[in-house]
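Hi,

Apologies if this is the wrong queue. I'm a grad student, and the batch job for PGF-CTERM sorting domain-containing protein from Runella rosea produced an output file that my downstream script rejects. I'm not sure whether the problem is my script or the file. Here is the sequence I used:
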Amino acid sequence: MNWFMKNSILSLLGLVLLASCSKTKDPMPKGIDAIFVGSSDNKLYAINSKTGMKLWDFTAADAVHSTPVLGNGLVFVGSSDEKVYTLDIQTGAKAWEFAAGMRISSAPFFADGTVYAGMGNTANFTSKLYALNSVTGAKKWEFTAEGLSVSSCTVVNGKVYVGGYTNIYALDAKTGEKVWEFATGTGVDSSPAVADGMVYMGSNDYNLYAVDALTGVKKWQFSTGGEVTSSPTVADGTVFVGSFDRKVYALDAKTGTKKWEFRTDGPVLSSPVVSNGVVYTGSNDYKLYALDAKTGAKKWEFWTGNRIQSSPVASDSLVYIGSLDRKLYAVDIQTGSKKWEFQTGGSIYSSPVILNAKGGTYSASVSGLQQ
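Support response: The file is valid. Your script probably expects a header line. Output copied below for reference.
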């Protein structure tokens, strides 16, 4: 897999990431309808989510493949210039920056006044995850893993879950001490989803793994026909994930039994999101798909001008997706028709994040259930 394809885990990722959607309860400024997304043109954009007009942009020294995260009136994002940036959500003014010493394409995670960011490639072929004070940027702790990783982390019940070069790690959120690790067959670029005491994560060994969140003991694995760099989403007892074998899978969350599969015309690196019984995901075949979550039946498809490795995010009426054609699209959630598009100066691997006028935020996060 080439380097740019790895940067799609926003997770990824995770979006973030990581790869799924949830609504945060963090206090945020009200009266703003905005969507935030990074681009290979070195910029993070804030765009009016209703009209597609630019509100502001921030320029880093290198590409912004990282998916941003919002918290306490701030935007946190990583960059390939080896820094983590914190910006004012209304103006884009920089509050602080942290020199991470590695190119960052994973999504940060914000919880309880701490920003967790990192997992990139350093000069000595290691990856680091940092815990930073969200107000000052001061480092609380760092965790070092061998090898390159672009996995975005998830924080649940006092533990940080993240993928490493060949492992899935659970860390103590306060200290960074390793609680357990689980070895897969090869590299882990997928980002974890945590639900009902289970951690779900894909691997480049073609498998999706489900492991116990407390012990790291494997509960089941499901084999696909290609690398699983897409990050799983968990909603209503079902795990949804994409694969390089061009398929989107729906699996029973407890047993790993396949419920359905849907074949696209290209590898699926995009991470699915679920909203009101519909699964949205992109594909390298240039298309955004809307699928029935229970049956996998296609509701509609939307064409972009290039591969989609960004992950979508849905509001009440629109679903947003970035494409390697350098554009961010807003698509009608019911019909799949385009409402607007925003042109950036570079390919979009970053996944968009929404802030609505009521102060609610939607992003790639722990659970794929759109709230």
